[in-house]
Write a structure and sequence with these properties.
With about 220 residues, this protein is an all-alpha fold. The longest helix has 19 residues. About 60% of the residues lie in helices and about 0% in strands. It folds into 2 domains: about 90 residues, Endonuclease Iii, domain 2 (Orthogonal Bundle); about 110 residues, Hypothetical protein, domain 2 (Endonuclease III, domain 1, Orthogonal Bundle), CATH 1.10.340. Helix 1 crosses helix 12, helix 5 packs across helix 6 and helix 8 crosses helix 9. The mean pLDDT is about 95. The structure holds a DNA duplex (13 and 12 nucleotides).
DNA sequence: GACCAGGCACATC
DNA sequence: GATGTGCATGGT
């Protein structure tokens, strides 16, 4: 497909979602650090459960890099328990905190001042931080133009024939980055809207998009 | 009670 | 390189 056609289709879908849902004001979270923590906790987990875990961290007043890292690992795991996989995620959070504290003096400003693609490589080097978590951190906490690909993105754009069933993360990401302007605002809103429509109309169990704002784009 | 959720690492073939 | 599995809570 010629790429200007692809670009028009992707923008038409974006506009349809914007029209249906309006601005999503993502990432849900008051500070960049809260967004980073949320990005780890939401791995394969419903956001409503992440909110409970973050509420626990706020109640304990430990939602800063230094304070979170000072928590005994068992205590950290107990606080994030509602978000599931709490032992795994406690370890992932601690390794990410170690990176923030040791390589960036605990300052997110310093961390995000790094050259973006080298920061992405460094984040991916942290055990437990994969491409989606890294890109969510970069885009939403750091304001860097990296398109976030998640399960909904693959499901929706797979069902609409933009990518094959076996498309991996990087291939799916290139669909957007190769065909859209490199805009933080656009990437931010587009991903948020994909999650919104995915939650409502593109669950695994609901293969048909009968009420979906995107149904007119189906082949 | 089954199924699923805004992944990731690791084992095995 | 592809496919399968463990990790775990809470909502539908």
């Amino acid at each position: 497909m010629p790429s200007n056609t692809l670009r028009r289709k992707l923008m038409a879908i974006y506009r349809a979602l914007r029209h249906a849902y309006g601005p999503q004001h993502w990432w849900p979270g008051d500070t960049p650090f809260e967004m980073i923590v949320g990005a780890v906790l939401t791995q394969n987990t419903a956001w409503v459960n992440v909110e409970k875990a973050i509420a626990n961290l706020k109640r304990e007043r430990v939602l800063t890099p230094a304070r979170l890292f000072r928590l005994p690992p068992r205590k950290l795991a107990a606080l994030i328990r509602p978000s599931g996989y709490y032992n795994i995620k406690a370890g992932r959070l601690r390794r990410l905190l170690e990176f923030i504290l040791s390589h960036n003096a605990g300052s997110l400003k310093i961390m995000f001042a790094a050259e973006p693609s080298s920061l992405r490589r460094n984040l991916l080097g942290v055990h437990g931080i994969g491409p989606e978590t890294a890109d969510a951190i970069l885009l939403y906490a750091g304001g860097k133009p990296f398109f976030v690909v998640d399960a909904y993105t693959r499901r929706i754009f797979g069902r609409h024939g933009f990518i094959g069933p076996g498309a991996d993360y990087d291939e799916t990401q290139r669909l957007f980055t190769d065909n859209l302007s490199r805009s933080v605002r656009l990437y931010n809103e587009y991903h948020a809207l994909i999650v919104r429509v995915g939650k409502e109309h593109c669950k695994k169990k609901k293969p048909l998009c009968l009420e979906c704002p995107l149904k007119r784009f189906l082949q």
